[in-house]
Structure formats: C-alpha cells, structure tokens
Amino acid sequence: MHLVLWLSVSVLITISLASGGHVSAALGDECSKLDSNSPILSNGFGQDQSNTRNGISRITSKNVSHLRLRFALGGSDPKKPGKPARERRGAPAVTGQALFYFVGNQIVVAGRRTGCTFWTATLTNPEDGKPDTPRSSSLLLVDNPNGGRMLFVGSKSGFVYGLDAADGSTIWGKSVSEDPKDRDPLQMVTGGIQFYDGRLFVPVATFEVFFARKPDYPCCSSRGRVVAFNAFDGTFLWAFDSVPPGGSGGSVWSALSVDPPRNQLLIGVGQNFTQPATAFSDAIVAIDLDTAAVNWSFQATAGDAWHIGCLEIPKVNCPVPEGPDFDFGAGAILADLPGTDRQAVIAGDKGGSVFSLDPATGKVNWSTKIGAGGTLGGIHWGLAVDDTGVYAGVADLFGDKRTLADVSKPAVTRYVQDATPGVYKLHLLTGDVIWEFHTSHVFESEVVQSAFSAAVSVTNDVVLASALDGELFALRSFDGKQLWSFQATMRLTAPDGSTVQGGTLDAMGAFAVDNMVLLNSGYYVFGARNRLRGGPGNALFVFELPDSGDEDN
User: Fold this and answer.
1) Could you report the per-residue pLDDT of 18-62, keeping only the tens digit for each?
2) By C-alpha distance, which of 509, 522, 515, 496 is closest to 465?
3) pTM here?
4) What CA–CA distance (Å, rounded) separates 370 from 352?
5) Model confidence over 143-157: pLDDT tens digits?
6) Structurally, what CATH architecture does the domain formed by 3-13+37-544 represent?
7) Domain range summary for the chain, segments of one domain joined by +
8) What does the alpha-carbon distance between residue 377 and residue 310 come to, in Å, rounded to a whole number?
C-alpha cells in the first residue's frame, strides 16, 4: 500500500521548558565532575559505523507526543564576539552524562540533563598557531586503549584534531595532506568522520567550488579525497584521491560508512569542476580499508561538472557542457536486508533518486526516483534506514550558492519544476514507495509547501524529519502519520543566561538518543528568514520524555 499524507498547514505545538531553563538541585551532581568513562550513547553524523541514522532510544510512537523542551544551548559568532552565532552544524556526540558539540569556533562539553558547562576549547592550527574552526564535521568519541577517551573533529582549514575528552587539550592535529609542502589550502573537512580498528577515516571536500566564480581565478585544480590516520597518535596512513591529477572537484561532503565484512569503506563523491568529468564524480565508491585500493564504483550521473561560477551572468569559468550538480551530498548506508543474510548499500543523490547496491560489486539492486532534483537536493544531507524501510527527505530546491562565497548576495531559494518536496518511505527490498508525507506552513499570510533538506533519522517506530522553515516533525514509521511537531524559530534563554535563537533546520537535522531528541537549529548561508527558510540561529534544542512512569502511555 502506498500512502500519501498531506497536511495543509503545519500545526505549531507549544512546548514548555522542563526545568524552567535552570539547573535543578536534584541534578546538581551532574555538574560536579565530567565522567570520562560515561557510556557513549550516540556518535557521529550517522550514529553508527554503518551510517544508518537509526538511534537507540526509549522514544516510540506511544510516547513521542510527551516530549518537552528541557533546555536550549546557544553560542557566539567567532567573527563577532558577544554576538550570537548564526548557524548550528555538526552532530553532537552523546554520553550518559554529557553532550560534546561545537558552535562557532568553540568545542563545548555540557551536561546532558542540565546544560552546565564542563569545559570549552578552541582548536589551534598546528602550522600557524591561529584559531581553527570546525565546519560541519560531526564530533566522534573513541576510547583510547592507552587509557582515557579521545574526541575527534575536522576543520574548515583541512586539519583533523584528536583531543583529550576529559579536558579538551589537543593530543594531535594533522593536515589532510601527508606532506605539508603539498598542502592544498582550499581543502576542508566537512563530512562525518568514522573510526574502525584503531584508524580514523576522514572525508575531504574543497572550497574551490566557491572560488571558481572569480574571473581571474585559474580554474580548477583542487580535489576531494579520503585520508586515514592512526587514531591515537595521528600517523598518516594513506590517502584516496577521488579525482586523478589534472582533474578537479570530487569533494567528499558526506559521512563515511564502514563495511567490515568486506573490509571496505563506502564513500559518496561530488561533481567535477571541469570537463572532462571523471569516473568517480557523482559516484559511490568502495575502497579497501587497508590499502585504499578501489573495489568497485557506481556512478549515478556521468559527465557532471559544475561550480558556482555557472550561476554568474555571464557565466565565469563554467565548464562546457555544464552539469546539473547532482552529486552525493548524503552519505551511503550499509543496511541489513530483513529476512535474509544479505546487506545492501543505500544511497540518495541530489538528483532525487535512491539506490540500492550490492556491497560486493556495486551492482544496482533497484533505484527509485522520488524527487525532481536540484542544486540543494533532491536528497541533500542524509537518509535513514531500519529493518522495515528507507527514509528520505526531499527538498527539490534551486539555491543561489553564490551566497556561500558572498553573504551580501541576494539569497534566492526556489522550487524546481515538478518539485515533490516531502518525506518518503521506500521498501528496503524493492524500492517501492510505501508512504509520502507532505506539509506546508504559513509565511506572511502565504501558504508555502515545506522542504526537507536536512538528514532524516529513525528510532524504534518514529521518524524525525526537519523542515527548512524551522518545524520538526515526528512521524509514525509504518504509515507516516504525524505524531508531534515543534516550531524552532523562537528566542529563549540558555541555562547560562545567554540568548538562544532558533532558525532554519538543515544539515544534521534531529536525532534521538536514550530519552531525548537533539535538534540543531540555524543556518545562515542562504539568507535571512524567508518563505522557505527559518533563518539564522545558534540553537541546540534538547527535548526529553518526562521522568514519570507514563513514558509508554
């Protein structure tokens, strides 16, 4: 059965602060000392090594409507001290006691139940000694066999840092280039890092997609890659370049996925910047964990070469022919197939298609197109899977990405022709659409369809889907029925008394852990609040189920 659900106007549900925004006396002990051995409950963008975004929690369709806002955390803009940050990126890592997150250029560890701060740290570039800043790279906690626990994060300047999770001190910091003399200053770490068997696997993208719009820029030579380090001492192990020398582009924007049975790493690769396009652009590539040798690749869109200069009038440095920018911004997932002993690689591209691939060969099991596709998706940030299906948000948006390089440019975001924005569930074995969820919101008296660019997640029988306009939805996984919602475009006060502003829901989206839902809110690069977007913000919302015994009622 294929269900299509439409809500004409999203319903705003008011949530009260569970503790009035203050730390209660009963929870005061949480703030006394950080427990470095507290169990890790959620880790990285994908919440597990398979990148499933399937969280382990106590939240179900029976109790999700009982969620209440416990508190919200803010943060300052690194370029404007004292002013609120304008966006929230990256997934927090969560233990039984604490939240490890970043905002602006600050790494912060806060109490999971109280929001009290244990420590803050600023990354320092090991080459020039200047402060460094994470971009979208999610935080990853790893137990060190030599004792203690480490926290890993990548930066917008192309460095990876291993910190002591107990106090934030830097244990090591390394460039994603093996030889500092060959370092590409345009490379950055923005996707989700993975850990396996003592090694850290790091996706690398490039800012050149923005710089190519300059008429005097010699376009183009910067390339994406994946690098591997010894996680505990930072030794450089190997690098896989997604584009051969002489080419450009191939950014690895998304979270990686580890496939231990086949000893391989699954990578989603972006488009080229110049023609001729190369074999791994817009592709899922499986490489050996030990040697980085390519086991197989699947290219969804051949010949795709594009960068921001293609938006200029007249076009600047734009490749001919110009591609559609339909890369894999969402990471691949290694999924167990129900009722079988087999697995599949699940991936979705900005062209609006979902693919199931054989993890041994890359052969296509099925493909289903659920969106028209656009430069902001199609499927943009991430999918989720459980044992009943694949969940995908569709944006189907054109975005004027020149605002990424110059925020003074007018922000233009609009639906593409034949857009079908919404949330979809697909059958894991066949790719058939099981249900669709579509909704709308009101902006300045206009009813507007809501777009879903952020990564979705699933927990038990609940799907969490974040709309760009700022509304978070909890949907029942078997039929897509709306169970709960929260409008995040609000201003409130953090436990420390600072101002918190919610806004656009994009990138990481929401995820569940234990009795909580965490939600990043605020994304400014495509402009202020408008008919499709909630606008800038610095909020990390922390929702929880009540402490009483009626969680399952």
Assistant:
1) 443 333 444 557 788 999 889 999 999 999 999 999 999 999 999
2) 509
3) 0.94
4) 6
5) 999 899 999 999 999
6) 8 Propeller (2.140)
7) 3-13+37-544
8) 17
